[in-house]
Amino acid sequence: MKSRERVFKALSRSGVPDRVPLQFDLCRSLSDAFAEKYDIPTDYTTSYYEDLTYRISNNDLRTAMGSDVVVVGGGLPRGYSHEVTPEGYIINEFGMMMRQGPLYMEVIIHPLKDASTVQDILNHPYPDAYAEGRFDDARRIIEKYKDDYFIVGDVEVGMFEMSWQHVGMEKFMMDLALGEEYCGAIIDRVKTFNTGIAKQLVDLGVDALWFGDDFGAQNGMLISPGMWRNIFKPRYAEMWQEIRAASPDVLIAYHTDGAVAPILGDLADIGMQVFNPVQPNVPGHDPQELKDKFGDRMAFWGAIDQQDLLPNGTSDEIAADVAEKIRVLGAGGGYMCSPAHIIQSDVSMENVEAFIAAAKAHGEY
Questions:
Q1: Domain residues of the chain, as ranges?
Q2: pLDDT digits over 170-205, tens only?
Q3: CB under 8 Å to 234, separation ≥6 — which residues?
């Protein structure tokens, strides 16, 4: 069975594939190290939001290592380059000043930190989702892999995260709770941008769209389920309905970190078909409970712990966890095995390979 059919059967819950499909992302240091080991050149596509670069890069390497999935997304416009400050910080397309942190790029100046009105939002220059060249790499990669691999189009960062990155998290959360009108305006501006990115990826021929917003923390949600239902649920419903109306066959996957069990049913109601990353070890995410409650409404993608297991576990411990997740979440299909996020530099190359080997060894039906 080709990777494309294997992933489609699992994520669409349309049958049982020959084995549980496999997907993973690698940070830059691991990408560079494995590229040297496998003698495969790195191929980085800089995303419109820099930390997504590792989602949509090095597909040649990842497929050679065993991934059943190719991930593409929006890059920078043709001929565009970031403004760089004298300190070496970049100013991205959205006007955010960013520096490299220990793991991810960090926004150090939020361009709308002083916003208080809808007009402040409308006056802020915003990038064009349809800018020439934004999908040059995606088009090339899709053409290469479309017959054999399942193609996922990445549409992160979403309405919640991108909005607070513009404003600053503390200010945005307070103003959201206070009902400040400008909050809806920035959310809608992000929605429009993301919809444009998604529609172009569908036109290019992706098999699934991967949206994302981290609404969860380790112990619960960052905002109340009620606030999420009032503000974000209708907007995601509108966006997904618009996309599915144009392309009924594209699968909708949604990434939201943390303990988000209270809204999983709502997400399924409005069109989410694949839940990612199924972060383990948080309230409400017991694999058997998730499978029993939601297995007939959604597929699961992720669930392998990278907060402790992958950085610190032995190969035997990794194999045992992978086998158990496959046993539970993969019962009857409906599961793609993956770490719960981009694999970071605190994970050894040996443990990355142990995870891949375990997924293949224990994934056959």
A1: 3-362
A2: 999 999 999 999 999 999 999 999 999 999 999 999
A3: none
Q: Is the pLDDT of residue 51 over 90?
A: no
Give the CATH fold of the 3-362 domain.
TIM Barrel (3.20.20)
Instruction: Please give the model's pTM, rounded to 2 decimal places.
Output: 0.97
Write out the chain in H/E/C secondary structure: CCHHHHHHHHHHCCCCCCECCECCCECHHHHHHHHHHHCCCCCCCCECCHHHHHCCCCHHHHHHHCCCEEEEECECCCCCCCEECCCCCEECCCCCEEEECCCCEEEEECCCCCCCCHHHHHHCCCCCCCCCCCCHHHHHHHHHHCCCCEEEEECCCCHHHHHHHHHCHHHHHHHHHHCCHHHHHHHHHHHHHHHHHHHHHHHHCCCEEEEECCCECCCCECCCHHHHHHHCHHHHHHHHHHHHHHCCCCEEEEECCCCCHHHHHHHHHCCCCEEECCCCCCCCCCHHHHHHHHCCCCEEEEEECCCCHHHHCCHHHHHHHHHHHHHHHCCCCCEEEEECCCECCCCCHHHHHHHHHHHHHHCEC
| Whether residue 103 has pLDDT greater than 80 | no
Mean pLDDT of the chain: 97
Tell how strand 90-91 and strand 97-100 pair up: antiparallel
Tell me the C-alpha to C-alpha distance, in Å, between residue 181 and each of 185, 226, 294. Answer: 7, 18, 35
How far is the C-alpha of 180 from the C-alpha of 175, rounded, in Å? 5
Going by pLDDT thresholds of 50, 70 and 90, the confidence category of residue 246 is: confident
